[in-house]
Amino acid sequence: MFVYLETSRLVLRRFTVDDVDDLVALDSDPAVMRYITGGTATPRQEIETDHLPAFMSYYDQGDRWGFWAAIEKQTGTFLGWFHLRPHDGEPEDEPELGYRLKREAWGAGYATEGSRALIFKAFTELGAKRVYAETMAVHAASQRVMEKAGLRFVRSFVSDWPVRIEGDEDGDVEYALTLSQWAAQGGRDL
Ligand SMILES: CC(C)(COP(=O)(O)OP(=O)(O)OC[C@H]1O[C@@H](n2cnc3c(N)ncnc32)[C@H](O)[C@@H]1OP(=O)(O)O)[C@@H](O)C(=O)NCCC(=O)NCCS
């Protein structure tokens, strides 16, 4: 098993083809998908032929950026995933942070724990100059994770989302932390 990162309670590892069922289950929960698709599940075929191959394609390019399965260390349970990678066409040293966890795992601080560790790795090992994250303005839990991970509000904006989601009239928000801001606040694992 290739471990990308360990925190006190989580292991972030590479995805494998054996993760299909867990990904299907994750994306089948309307509560998980609420701020992503409006609650619609991702079809299994799309996960098999699109999402998982896209996740795994990062590993051929080395282990700098990518999508990582989040495993609860103590039990070995699949909790969901994190991503840390630049968006297509954006600077290589400005990765976007993202996360999607099973409902059973919410409220235990896992998203914050994984995010903080990824941000620390981004600035100390991976050469990031800026880490950012985006979510819907109405998605308070995700914004709280961003704040607790040390990201700061940058802007509100309206994105061209392919589906209509309740609350999208309020637009989206971007949070970010630059290398210099991170260094100024002690350059440590927050
Ligand atoms: C968003 C998500 C990753 C948060 O994961 P998590 O592990 O529960 O996050 P944490 O426990 O680290 O922190 C959540 C924080 O949000 C707060 N929170 C949760 N629901 C909230 C709400 N409706 N309003 C305001 N704050 C809320 C929690 O109280 C906690 O803050 P606190 O520690 O100050 O009390 C998780 O809910 C998830 O995976 N959702 C589905 C996928 C998704 O929406 N991903 C993000 C897309 S941008």
Detail the poorly predicted runs: none
Average pLDDT metric:
96
Q: Rg to the nearest angstrom?
A: 16 Å
**CATH architectural designation:** 3-Layer(aba) Sandwich
- Tally the structural domains: 1
So what's the CATH class? Alpha Beta
Hetero groups in this structure are: coenzyme A
Order of helices and strands: EEHHHEEEHEHEEH
Summed up, the helix count is: 6
Number of strands: 8
The CATH topology is what?
A: Aminopeptidase
What structural category do the secondary elements indicate? alpha+beta
Please tell me what the overall shape is. globular
CATH superfamily grouping: Gcn5-related N-acetyltransferase (GNAT)
Q: DSSP strand (E) fraction?
A: 25-35%
Main β-sheet description: 5 strands, antiparallel
Q: How are the strands of the biggest sheet laid out side by side?
A: 1-2-3-4-5
Termini gap: 28 Å
Describe the overall structure.
The protein has 190 residues and is an alpha+beta fold. It has helices at 20-26, 30-33, 44-57, 110-124, 140-148, 179-184, and strands at 3-6, 10-13, 66-72, 78-85, 96-101, 130-136, 152-157, 172-178. The radius of gyration is 16 Å and the shape is globular. It binds coenzyme A (COA). Coenzyme A (COA) binds next to β5, α4 and α5.
Explain briefly what this protein structure is.
By secondary structure, the protein is of the alpha+beta class. Helices cover 29% and strands 26% of the residues. β1 and β2 form a beta hairpin.
